[in-house]
Amino acid sequence: MALVYGVEKKTVPTHMKFVMGGASGMLATCIVQPLDLLKTRMQISGTLGTREYKNSFEVLSKIWKNEGMLSLYNGLSAGLLRQASYTSAKMGVYQMELDWYRKNFGNYPSMVASMTMGIVAGAFGALCGNPAEVALIRMMSDNRLMPEDRRNYKNVGDAFVRIVKDEGVVALWRGCLPTVGRAMVVNMVQLASYSLMKDQLHGYLSEGIPLHLTAALVSGFLTSVTSMPLDMAKTRIQQMKVIDGKPEYSGTIDVLKKVVKNEGAFAVWKGFTPYLIRMGPHTIFSFVFLEQMNKAYGKHVLGDSLSDSEP
């Protein structure tokens, strides 16, 4: 608990910060999973030597026609596990950092402080969520391969078992470096811009969904623009196959160099439209769900309207 203007202020327990962070991400994923699949298919288009899709609408049309509507949710189990691990860790750590900052400095964090806290939270979350990320990318991209080349994972549990059996435990952290790098950039921009936008808009909008929605919209756009190239590299590395002991890419820089050379400079933003459409709503839903969970917990569990619950 803390004292605010002489009034004892209850705080949300640390473990609940992690639970609500993961739950908000999982709920958002259930809504935007089809967009994530479109983004992934666009990003790996071209790895077979030809450009498979002209735009996001063609991806959607071909998936709908050849694989069926439900295939838009391929990899959902891995996506939910990713949110349960990555987002729980990210949001939980970030909220703990915010609590620490406010307790010690008595105000909202500066831009530099917000960005630093976002980097730390993102890196921690990415390390926890990388195995689910690998399974997710593979499950979403499997149907585009020839039948003899498909992995045909039944679910995320089957994916983990077979990856460990066929490729070793270390393969679960394949692409970890670009994943962590992307997460650091994403969260540096996403979490920091959201917190700062809320701070700036408090003088114009009262605390509530309009404020959360506006801040999340700006955060989602800025995050999409800055993180897309690293997301492209992460996706290519995590779905690549190792042939005769030689991987297709040696690292993030190698991916970006080959993509620019073979597909053009703007190819590093391939899939930007579904990425933005996915990132924007996911950011919005995640933060709005999180804010409402914090508010409900403070009101119904802590029984204190002054509970320290905002992220």
Secondary structure tally, helices:
9
Largest sheet: 2 strands, antiparallel
Structural class: mainly alpha
Number of strands: 4
Distance between the termini: 16 Å
Low-confidence residue ranges? 1-8
Strand order of the biggest β-sheet: 1-2
Strand content: under 5%
Mean pLDDT: 82
Radius of gyration: 20 Å
How would you describe the shape? globular
Kindly state the percentage of residues in helix: 55-70%
- Please provide the ordered H/E string of secondary-structure elements: EEHHHHHHHEEHH
Description:
This is Mitochondrial 2-oxoglutarate/malate carrier protein. Solcar repeats lie at residues 16-100, 109-200, 207-296. The protein has a domain at 175-270. It is globular and about 60 Å long. It has helices at 14-44, 56-66, 76-105, 111-141, 156-167, 176-201, 209-239, 252-263, 272-301; strands spanning 2-4, 7-9, 242-243, 246-247. The chain is mainly alpha-helical. Strand 1 (2-4) and strand 2 form a beta hairpin.
